[in-house]
Design a protein that fits this description.
mainly beta; 6 strands; 62% strand
């Protein structure tokens, strides 16, 4: 896991996804785009998922946050996919 200070580019609405671990059989998920700090719009960006209680948190364009991200990969039908999961996030400004 890695913790970075980032700027929020945009955040989508939360939606339900199936989950074998959740008591109700589903869990809330939302996607958020975070950009490294710097002087341009060409800094590194991360498209991340937030699950459960984090999915209910609202952040807005320009918010500066400290986010802990977990990077993982998985293979499905012969193709490799990367996933970035926000495990903790805190608004700074």
């Amino acid at each position: 896991m890695e913790t970075k200070i980032l700027r929020v580019v945009r955040q989508g609405e939360a939606f339900d996804v199936p989950s074998a671990k959740a008591e109700t059989g589903s869990i809330q998920k939302c996607n958020i785009v975070l950009r490294e700090l710097g002087g341009s719009k060409y800094e590194n960006e991360f498209v991340c998922a937030m699950l459960g209680n984090l999915a209910a948190c609202r952040f807005y364009e320009g918010d500066v946050v400290a986010a802990t991200m977990r990077f993982s990969t998985h293979e499905y039908q012969g193709a490799a996919y990367q996933e970035v999961m926000v495990t903790d996030i805190l608004k700074i400004n």
